[in-house]
Specification:
Distance between the termini: 61 Å
Strand order of the largest sheet: 1-2-3
Shape: elongated
Number of strands: 7
Strand content: 5-15%
Oligomer: single chain
Structural class: alpha+beta
Helix content: 10-25%
Length: 192
């Protein structure tokens, strides 16, 4: 490319602003800028975040779009999260029931009925109901009535084409339990 066709002199010039394939807006800042890529472009939301903070972003800090529109880089739509963990929490859906960053991890009683207490959320912030290795008792989980052998037999019957309703009746469990076994959601009788 000839030097006289660089930047504003190029017929394809769009004012130094473009949208990347990931949906984020890129701004031409020059290759000497600390946020620039090898072409001299930086993500606009990171530039706005630094301007809003009055300092450079620290290692690990993440920029969050409040309305989740990647191209809306107004300062009031930009939040700075201290870590990727905190940023991911902003995108969680409430129905998952995961632990919110910096929230307490309360002690709960094991649902198997043993009386032991343990933190509700595991290290991956997923909620737990029982201690690993314990089984649900009684009607709390119909699959707990099944042995490992029974689960294998149910899987074999499902793959042979037998009706799931008939299998449920044969093993005295609900049709939904048979469906969960067929989909691979129940492997053994232990819910970990």
């Amino acid at each position: 490319m000839a030097k006289h066709n660089i930047g504003p002199k190029n017929g394809m010039w769009k004012g130094g602003r473009s949208v990347a394939s990931n949906g984020y807006v890129l701004i031409r800042v020059g290759i000497d800028h600390h946020l620039a890529d090898v072409r001299g472009y930086a993500y606009e939301h990171r530039l706005v975040a630094e301007e809003k903070l009055g300092r450079r972003l620290r290692a690990g800090e993440q920029v969050h779009h409040v309305n989740e529109n990647k191209s809306d880089n107004r300062p009031e739509n930009i939040e700075i999260e201290p870590s990727q963990f905190h940023h991911q929490a902003k995108h969680r859906r409430a129905e998952r029931g995961l632990r919110v960053p910096d929230a307490p991890n309360p002690l709960i009683e094991c649902a198997c009925g043993c009386g032991e207490r343990f933190p509700k959320f595991a290290s991956d912030n997923e909620p737990r109901r029982i201690i690993n290795g314990h089984r649900y008792s009684g009607e709390r989980n119909a699959s707990s009535k099944l042995t490992v052998t029974a689960v294998r037999d149910i899987r074999r019957l499902v793959t042979s084409g037998k009706s799931q309703r008939a299998i449920a009746k044969l093993f005295s469990v609900s049709h939904s339990v048979i469906g969960r076994i067929a989909r691979g959601q129940i492997w053994t009788t232990v819910d970990e």
